[in-house]
């Protein structure tokens, strides 16, 4: 998700990029400032708005899941089906919805820069995750009812994920799931143009579906689908056994493999923001007593 403001308005007057040198460092600084500002705005939203945004995110992923099923069964090509799944992530982008795993970079940057407290980030994650789970239940109940021919597909997927062992291979696959979606978020931060963002979301959606990675929200949709058919033999306990460690691995993968490196890359800007020496135009000095 991106803001509609001029990306140049946040460049500090004393930054090297103010002379329009066009260096990569200047671009990184500008992007990081925009990222911190957007993160602060997102963490300031009320919990109800965060939950609703999360519900919408899962509803839209469900559209992608349906597209994947239709294309795969019609063409026999899993790769084409994975490409069709990317529709869901494109809808999320254009509709300004949210998945839990999209919150591992932009909101975190606001906390790292000292603009928002940690408990706001935890609230953001919890509310978004809750909304995602509610949305997953709603969309899968609808799909199970509307597409009975889809039941065997959903049951097969549900059994695969719900009975997945907690071993090094699957933990790493879950960490990669968090990494891939956080990389999509990072690519979005480097442009305000819609077309490059759509391309980034398409890449992320394809990788999410085609590479066998494990994702707490997408795979929850599959498990709920199998549950709601009433034919899988699964219970909500099976889902709980799956989702806690996958969500944790997604979180670690996104934070460690993408976000932490991003903050090191732009550490000067992060430190300046934390010290209150870099401010957006017209912004009051940071409250050092926070």
Automatic annotation (TrEMBL):
Stretches with biased composition (Basic and acidic residues): 1-11
Protein location: Membrane
Ranges for region Disordered: 1-27
Entry GO CC: plasma membrane
InterPro entries: Aquaporin-like, For/NO2_transpt
One Pfam family from the record: Form_Nir_trans
Transmembrane segments: 48-71, 83-112, 124-148, 168-185, 197-218, 242-264
Membrane topology designation: Multi-pass membrane protein
Keyword line: Membrane, Transmembrane, Transmembrane helix
Domain of life where this protein originates: Bacteria
GO molecular function: formate transmembrane transporter activity
Keyword Transmembrane recorded: yes
PANTHER family assigned to the protein according to its UniProt record, in alphabetical order: FORMATE TRANSPORTER-RELATED, INNER MEMBRANE PROTEIN YFDC
Protein name as annotated: Formate/nitrite transporter family protein
């Amino acid at each position: 998700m991106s803001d509609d403001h001029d990306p140049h308005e946040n460049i500090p007057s004393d930054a090297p990029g103010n002379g329009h040198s066009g260096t990569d460092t200047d671009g990184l600084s500008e992007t990081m400032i925009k990222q911190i500002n957007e993160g602060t705005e997102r963490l300031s939203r009320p919990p109800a708005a965060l939950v609703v945004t999360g519900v919408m995110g899962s509803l839209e992923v469900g559209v992608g899941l349906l597209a994947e099923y239709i294309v795969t069964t019609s063409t026999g090509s899993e790769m084409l089906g994975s490409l069709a799944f990317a529709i869901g992530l494109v809808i999320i982008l254009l509709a300004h919805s949210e998945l839990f795993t999209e919150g591992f970079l932009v909101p975190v940057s606001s906390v790292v820069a000292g603009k928002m407290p940690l408990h706001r980030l935890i609230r953001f994650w919890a509310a978004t995750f809750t909304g995602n789970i509610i949305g997953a239940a709603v969309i899968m109940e609808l799909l199970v009812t509307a597409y009975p021919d889809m039941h065997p597909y959903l049951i097969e997927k549900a059994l695969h994920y719900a009975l997945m062992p907690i071993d090094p291979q699957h933990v790493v696959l879950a960490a990669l799931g968090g990494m891939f979606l956080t990389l999509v978020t990072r690519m979005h931060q480097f442009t305000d143009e819609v077309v490059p963002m759509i391309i980034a979301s398409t890449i992320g959606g394809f990788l999410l579906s085609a590479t066998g990675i494990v994702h707490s929200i997408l795979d929850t949709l599959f498990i709920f689908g199998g549950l709601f058919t009433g034919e899988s033999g699964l219970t909500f306990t099976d889902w709980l056994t799956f989702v806690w460690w996958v969500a944790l691995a997604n979180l670690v993968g996104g934070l460690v493999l993408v976000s932490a490196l991003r903050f090191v890359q732009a550490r000067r800007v992060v430190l300046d923001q934390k010290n209150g020496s870099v401010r957006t135009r017209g912004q009051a000095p940071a409250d050092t007593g926070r």
